[in-house]
UniProtKB/TrEMBL annotation:
Sequence positions that bind S-adenosyl-L-methionine: 239-245, 260, 286, 302
Annotated GO MF terms: RNA binding; RNA methyltransferase activity
Positions of the catalytic residues: 355 (nucleophile)
EC number: 2.1.1.176
Domain of life the protein comes from: Bacteria
Protein name as it appears in the record: 16S rRNA (Cytosine967-C5)-methyltransferase
Coiled-coil zones: 259-286
GO annotation, biological process: regulation of DNA-templated transcription; RNA methylation
Domain SAM-dependent MTase RsmB/NOP-type: from-to ranges: 147-421
Enzyme superclass (EC): transferase
Family affiliation: Belongs to the class I-like SAM-binding methyltransferase superfamily. RsmB/NOP family.
Stored InterPro entries: MeTrfase_RsmB-F_NOP2_cat, MeTrfase_RsmB-F_NOP2_dom, NusB-like_sf, NusB_RsmB_TIM44, RCMT, RsmB/NOL1/NOP2-like_CS, SAM-dependent_MTases_sf
Length: 421
């Protein structure tokens, strides 16, 4: 006699997609954004959004979820069963899914040999309920130990506030085109960005198709703001895609040359500029090896980095990066900084920026810039309305996810300004 077959519980495609996102990010160390693009095209947009929400919640609270599951597991289950348990626990404790649905879908998701285990463990987790989360040191559990140690060394006790800021999804921040008015419900931030609540769909906002704004974290908008582009200036935007900073420079009236190595990301930059009706000269090249026809008045170098300042928006980053990635990124940044210094006219200015919280990718570049003959021109707190805490005593920009905590935080960014004598 064959066992009776049950129809799959509703919502299984969403959980399968969430599991695929966890497999891609945690086992293959692929970026979550890339894994989302690789999900089957037939997946309903609502299922895709729900899978993203589930996977992002698991990635944000991975340490806490594993801590709660630990007492019920005598040995490590294989990854597909582990992911089913994490998804089930996240739904039970953090996402408000009714217990029977959370358990049934996680059981259906698990490899058959582990269905009984997943069922038994999640029933126990469901019985304990959200109380299971109480008393856990979530900030610490949900932060990989090497990142905690590095932020503690750099920022002292603020490491806890940084880690806590990573727990909630980030709001939607927009940079307005000149003269545009904010959509209903947007908060206008002191630095000029507009802020809408997390989960707002940018394409649904009036003015999107007309190019009245673009998506850009409030902190990511600061390096171009601090470069203070002027109409008619020749400015290079090195490492430019997807083009948030190119758009800021072009909207200010500068003659922008956007240099980017990655062809696919350049397509996104072109699409963004077309929607915004902005123009830039686009060059596909390795900025560390490229030579311009003539030197520039100003350069914005938004260098590739470990992106540990963007964990609120990209919770996969916390798990994808390794300590050895930091010196590798810093070395690539040093090469780009040296190339940028050669492209600058005498008297020209350069803003170097990274979206990393690691000082090796920020403050540590100051002596290198000096060795290249660049003169550090400190930022003044008055240049940054409403955010004086982001200017360090040395005159660098250093934003952190716990800044503007009551308003929804911001990405961690570093920037420094130099002048070529
Ligand atoms: C932090 S992102 C830039 C974000 C962009 N400035 C913006 O505001 O939208 C870094 C970019 O640098 C590009 N990149 C990395 N190494 C590069 C190189 N050697 N030359 C040119 N582009 C590079 C990456 O492909 C990526 O698009």
């Amino acid at each position: 006699m064959t066992a009776p077959t049950h129809p799959p519980p509703p919502g299984l495609p969403t959980r399968r997609a969430a599991r695929d996102l966890l497999t891609a990010t945690l086992e293959q160390r692929r970026p979550l954004e890339e894994a989302l693009e690789a999900l089957p095209a037939r997946l309903d947009p609502r299922d895709r959004a729900a899978a993203h929400r589930i996977a992002a919640t698991v990635l944000r609270r991975l340490g806490s979820l594993d801590e709660i599951l630990a007492p019920f597991l005598r040995k490590e289950p294989p990854p597909p069963a582990r992911h089913a348990l994490r998804i089930g626990a996240a739904e039970l404790l953090l996402l408000g899914t009714p217990p029977h649905a959370a358990v049934a879908t996680a059981v259906a998701l698990a490899p058959r040999a582990f269905a009984g285990l997943v069922n038994a463990v999640l029933r126990k987790v469901a019985a304990e309920g959200a109380a299971a989360l109480e008393g856990l040191d979530a900030a610490r559990l949900d932060t990989p130990p090497w990142l905690w140690a590095s932020w503690h060394a750099a920022y002292g006790p603020a490491v806890r506030a940084i880690a806590e800021a990573h727990r909630a999804p980030a709001p939607l921040d927009l940079t307005p085109a000149p003269g545009a008015s904010p959509p209903e419900g947007a908060e206008v931030l002191p630095t000029g960005s507009w802020r809408l609540s997390a989960g707002t769909r940018v394409t649904d906002l009036p003015g999107f198709a007309e190019g009245r704004f673009w998506v850009q974290d409030a902190a990511a908008a600061l390096p171009a703001l601090l470069l203070a582009p002027r109409p008619g200036e020749r400015i290079a935007d090195l490492c430019a895609a997807p083009g948030g900073k190119t758009a800021q420079l072009a909207a200010a009236g500068a003659e922008v040359t956007a240099v980017e190595r990655d062809a696919r990301r350049l397509d996104r930059l072109r699409e963004n500029l077309a929607r915004l009706r902005l123009r830039a000269t686009i060059v596909q090249a390795d900025a560390a090896a490229w030579t311009p026809d003539a030197p520039f008045d100003a350069i914005l170098l938004d260098a590739p980095c470990t992106a540990t300042g963007t964990i609120r928006r990209h919770p996969d980053v916390a798990h994808a990066k390794r300590p050895r990635d930091v010196p590798a990124a810093a070395e690539a940044q040093a090469r780009l900084l040296a190339a940028a210094a050669r492209m600058l006219r005498p008297g020209g200015r350069l803003v170097f920026a990274t979206c990393s919280l690691q000082p090796e990718e920020g403050e540590a570049h100051l002596p290198r810039a000096a060795a290249l003959g660049l003169v550090h021109k400190p930022f003044l707190p008055a240049e940054l309305p409403g955010l004086p805490e982001a200017i360090t005593p040395a005159g660098c920009l250093r934003t952190r996810p716990d800044f503007w905590a009551g308003r929804g935080g911001m990405d961690g960014f570093f920037a420094a300004r130099f002048r070529r004598p």
